[in-house]
Design brief:
The protein is built from five helices and no strands. By secondary structure, the chain is mostly helical. It comes from Solibacillus faecavium.
Amino acid sequence: MKERHEILFNQLKSYRNDTLSLLEDVSVEEAEIIPKRFNNNIRWNMGHIYLDQYLWIETQTKEKTNAPSEYNSWFGYGTSPTDFTSETPSYKELKTLLENQIEDIKDKFADKLEIVHSQTDMGMNTIEHVLIRTIFHEGIHFQHILNLKKFIK
């Protein structure tokens, strides 16, 4: 693997560990709270981070990833915890999914990072491009989780 790809996966893992560390002192009950002036809760943000990374890969490659299609109805853009059902992954399940996601992506796509596909937003046309974009996106939701914690703790 090229050095820049190793660096990319190290960054993805490091930022994901930051997100997981932020969740360490959040209880299951706290993860469900939607404070006033907020549209979502911590559990929704966790699922959205997980889903978004896979959706960008699927959009780019047209290949199916590990994200089940029903996740889009719970964690996709424009959804909220009011869309949750008894089938929606729990807080604990989402933590486990987030813990394993970067290695899963590395195992399945590390050798495909530079394959050129049709351009998507902002001229992105490789998995490498979309993974860089997902770092920014995870940072946005890291901040959302941080803000939610300030209101619930």
